[in-house]
């Protein structure tokens, strides 16, 4: 009986040892998956190993070569993408040129009509409005001419892109206005100048939508505001005279 018990105890000891060995094996596998940093925070093995990060496909290479065309007569050259300077934004375009080249003669015709008011108009308020037109549009013509000169342009620079100038009066209409006096002149002057101003506002609206130049934009904005106000004043002048 004693020998049987001893063999049983030995058998149980071997079983316990085998269980302990199995537990140690499981712990060893877990230690291979989890890495403990010095701060005590667990990190996965993939995170702990920087070589385990995945390379994302399709990312642009900032050093990839870019072919840059040379100036006329010069060969093209290759530069890195991160060394290529962005193309400068244009400072003016065809819409700006068209507006400037059309607005100069448009203003000039307004000056011709405004100068007639001094000795032909009957309404003193209309003479004041004519003086304001002279004071505003003469300097604007000089500003627009300087804008063209500074860019090596002239009145013909719009070429075939120049549209008909809205509101421009015919030579016959100007002759009739020149011959008129008193109330007849006042009525004709207001009708013709209102149409003329409205044409300038229409052209200004076009360049405000399509142009890019700051100076032209400011001039066009001034045309819209000032000539719109003058249209209202001229109409009020005729209404008050009745």
UniProtKB/TrEMBL annotation:
<keyword id="KW-0812">Transmembrane</keyword>
<feature type="domain" description="DUF305">
    <location>
        <begin position="96"/>
        <end position="238"/>
    </location>
</feature>
<dbReference type="InterPro" id="IPR005183">
    <property type="entry name" value="DUF305_CopM-like"/>
</dbReference>
<dbReference type="Pfam" id="PF03713">
    <property type="entry name" value="DUF305"/>
</dbReference>
<dbReference type="InterPro" id="IPR012347">
    <property type="entry name" value="Ferritin-like"/>
</dbReference>
<feature type="transmembrane region" description="Helical">
    <location>
        <begin position="15"/>
        <end position="37"/>
    </location>
</feature>
<protein>
    <submittedName>
        <fullName>Uncharacterized conserved protein, DUF305 family</fullName>
    </submittedName>
</protein>
<feature type="region of interest" description="Disordered">
    <location>
        <begin position="68"/>
        <end position="92"/>
    </location>
</feature>
<keyword id="KW-1133">Transmembrane helix</keyword>
<keyword id="KW-0472">Membrane</keyword>
